[in-house]
Amino acid sequence: MAFVESPVQLLNVLEWAYATGRSGSSAPAPPHAPKPLRAGVPRQPDGRTDSRTDGRTAGGPAGEPGAPAAGGREDPPAPVTPPDTGLVIVVLAPHDPMTRGQLRRMAELARDHGHRLRWEEARGGPGAPLRTVAGLAGPLRRARRIVIGDPFSRYVQLLLPLTRARELVVVDDGTATMEFVSQLARGERLVRWHRRGSRGARDLAFAPVSASTRRRLTPNARRSVTVFTAMPVEAPPGVDVVRNDFAWTRAAFGPPRLTRGTDLVGTSLVETGVVDPERYLAAVAGLARAYGATRYFAHRRESTEKLHRIASGLGLEVVRPELPLELIARRGPIGRTVLSFPSTVVHTLPLALAGTGVTVAVCDIDPVWLTERASPRAEGFLSEVTDTASDVRRLPAMPLSAPSAVNTGHTPQATHPCG
Length: 419
Fold this sequence. Notes:
Layout: E1 2-4, H1 7-19, E2 88-92, H2 97-112, E3 116-120, H3 128-142, E4 145-148, H4 154-159, E5 167-171, H5 176-186, H6 201-216, E6 224-229, E7 240-243, H7 247-252, E8 258-265, H8 277-291, E9 293-297, H9 304-314, E10 317-319, H10 325-331, E11 334-340, H11 345-352, E12 359-362, H12 378-387, E13 393-394
Parallel strand pairs: 1-2, 1-4, 2-3, 4-5, 5-6, 6-7, 8-9, 8-11, 9-10, 11-12, 12-13
Helix pairs in contact: 1-2, 8-9, 10-11
């Protein structure tokens, strides 16, 4: 069984299945042609797709294609069913509409490759957690192998004690994997890098569960632990690290058509409280001017208000992808240069786009951009994300001018946003 809560986690479960020979067919292409994958689709203000959204099953709530009935029942099968791989992917559905939409599209690809999907409305009300855990208890006890996408997830931490599996696999959840491996090696409690320690009684009450999770993710004579990752990590004692080189993505999509322009990749650092919004917008404005960026690929968690300011103030075409950026970029069209702030994509895009001629460039986060709410670890962690990225270009230092084009009404002090 595999447990995922984001599109990137589901993508990396598919990469793991392909790398370990657990994909439903020997060829990467699905047994029946899927609907075309578009770089972005028109969306309503709340993030829902319009009537052209793809989806083989219908009748989902809130306009979502292929949504399951309550109680975690699996979606109806696709018209053509490929061989069963024996892998059941459990989606612990989040609330965010953009994340849910991307998960729906990723679920289609997973079914195309022979995997069974079980959609759990794990956050669907006060009784949802108990129903979810109770419904999964039996399958968890029978599973020989457990694959998880987010070891920091409280849902995953509640479910892990129920398993008797002798093999645990952690697949990438982006840069969070780097922090997870470091904390596991140091024997520390599992805390996301952007959080400022405990948040009160709820965290204290959950501390024993988190400690139990860390122990279960520590290998011993009865249990092996593998980390499947594209991130630069050093294996803790006894943990196997398997390289994720995005072989499935490269085999199934592309090569992409390249445009003459430059694309800019957004981050959710503002939404997580790490980076000041005005300084972030000013940096986007400076990058767009200096490097001729014409499109802005939004992170699924970026706020509608911030994206509106980027589109209206800078004239950038804001694209809200319906799939993880690695797949969108591999299919194309994509710019010959892709600019990014420190994030997962500075490690994954060079792998997904290997051999295509695309240059991935990274712009550092200046420490003065950080908010007072940012974790003390934020500056060092973001620097590590950039410093350990290979096959990327570090952008030269560039003065940051006032963000008047973004209509912020606020002028930050002069800084150097890149390098």
